[in-house]
Write a structure and sequence with these properties.
The chain has about 100 residues and is mostly beta strands. The protein has a single domain, classed as Medium-chain alcohol dehydrogenases, catalytic domain (Quinone Oxidoreductase, Chain A, domain 1). Helices cover about 15% and strands about 35% of the residues. It contains two helices and six strands. Strands 3-4-6-5 form a four-stranded antiparallel β-sheet, with no helix packed on it. The protein has a two-stranded antiparallel sheet with strand order 1-2. The C terminus is likely disordered.
């Protein structure tokens, strides 16, 4: 899968890159979402620059919101909470 990733902090133009990553596998009680859109907010820019109070463990991807499609879910995923709507055979996901 492709993802925007930053491995060090600095100017987003210098540190943000597209990387090919292995597809994650959902664990117990988790779902796998194919992200279609993930906005980057001004606070994300501060995080990439290293100027935010709580910094993620690097490497990291900017943004915490997404719109996508549920690709897989763990069969034990009874307590998963999400806002969803059915669209043909897919389940739309909005975090």
């Amino acid at each position: 899968m492709k993802a925007f990733v930053f491995e060090r902090t600095g100017n987003p133009n210098d540190v943000l890159a597209v990387r090919e990553l292995p597809e994650p596998k959902p664990g117990p009680g988790e779902i796998l979402v194919r992200v279609r859109l993930s906005p980057v907010h001004p606070s994300d820019m501060h995080i990439m620059r290293g100027r935010f109070g709580r910094q993620p463990t690097l490497p990291a991807s900017p943004g915490i919101e997404c719109v996508g499609v549920v690709e897989r879910l763990d069969r034990r995923c009874r307590s998963c909470t999400w806002h969803a709507r059915r669209s043909s055979e897919r389940l739309g996901f909005v975090a």
